[in-house]
Design goal:
With about 260 residues, the chain is of the alpha/beta class. Helix content is about 35%, strand content about 25%. The chain has one domain: Metallo-beta-lactamase, Chain A (4-Layer Sandwich), CATH 3.60.15. It binds zinc ion and fe (iii) ion.
Length: about 260
């Protein structure tokens, strides 16, 4: 059985750990910091057998040098970004096989947040980095709004039961924005209540599922009449396509009080 568990680092990052029963080698996704990862592994008698990187931001790669020094794992990451320590460059459409985990993952192009951002999909799981968040999405720093919309659309088209492993705990703030966009969305209101309860108990609100995001995340709902109407009323003009609705929402959220 595959077990996936988070190591929280910094104030709101999650480093995802992939562990297979009977193996002492885990795969680590986006180790922004090495210390907490090494401590969690030592506690369980585990070692790093592979590292996966979604994009070059410091809070996702900062722990790489130390993990490489200690464990010498193969490190997969986007070929379109310059990341010291990545020795297995990859791009959307590639498929990788993780040593010791009996796990194959498809690489998905998730450009938008950064110029080369990738995701990893397999075994009913998607490791989405800073592209999709629970109730929201990453900021568009290096790519275009069109690229980010395309990346989120690729994730939206995964089987609805796919678990989405996001790299940050941003859910509550995201859902507050979502409810400004869709005050009449009942599933969203229910989700806010559930997330408030979870956060009050310091529990993670990720992973999510694609189905839950399709029901409550405005950035995956740009084709819905309610979301389009909200974007149009915020922009004060008509917005004809879902891609443009996405761009308007993303810009709106950039200026939203956190
Ligand atoms: Zn990032
Ligand atoms: Fe990040």
């Amino acid at each position: 059985m595959l077990k996936i568990w988070p190591v929280p680092v910094f104030s709101d990052n999650y480093v995802w750990m992939l562990e297979r029963d009977g193996s002492d080698r885990v795969a680590v996704v986006d180790p922004g910091d090495a210390g907490p990862v090494i401590a969690a592994l030592a506690e369980r008698g585990l070692e790093v057998g592979a590292v996966l990187i979604t994009h070059h931001h410091r809070d996702h790669v900062g722990g790489l040098p130390e993990l490489i020094r200690r464990f010498h794992p193969p490190v997969w990451g986007p070929s379109a970004e310059s990341i010291q320590g990545v020795d297995r460059p990859l791009a959307g459409g590639d498929r990788i096989s993780l040593p010791g985990l009996d796990l194959e993952l498809d690489v998905v192009d998730l450009r938008g947040h950064t110029a080369g951002h990738v995701g990893f999909v397999g075994a009913g799981c998607a490791f989405v980095g800073d592209t999709l968040f629970a109730g929201g999405c990453g900021r568009v720093f290096e790519g275009t709004m069109e690229q980010m919309h395309g990346s989120l659309t690729r994730l939206a088209e995964l089987p609805p039961e796919t678990m989405a492993y996001c790299a940050h705990e941003y859910t509550l703030a995201n859902l507050r924005f979502a409810s400004a966009v869709e005050p009449g969305n009942g599933a969203l209101a229910d989700r806010i209540a559930a997330v408030e309860t979870a956060r009050a108990a310091s529990q993670p609100t990720v992973p999510s599922t694609i189905a839950y995001e399709l029901a409550t995340n405005p950035f995956l709902r740009c084709g819905e009449a309610s979301v389009r109407a909200a974007a149009e009323s915020h922009a004060g003009r008509s917005i004809p396509t879902p891609a443009e609705v996405f761009a308007e929402l993303r810009t709106w959220k950039d200026g939203w009080p956190a």
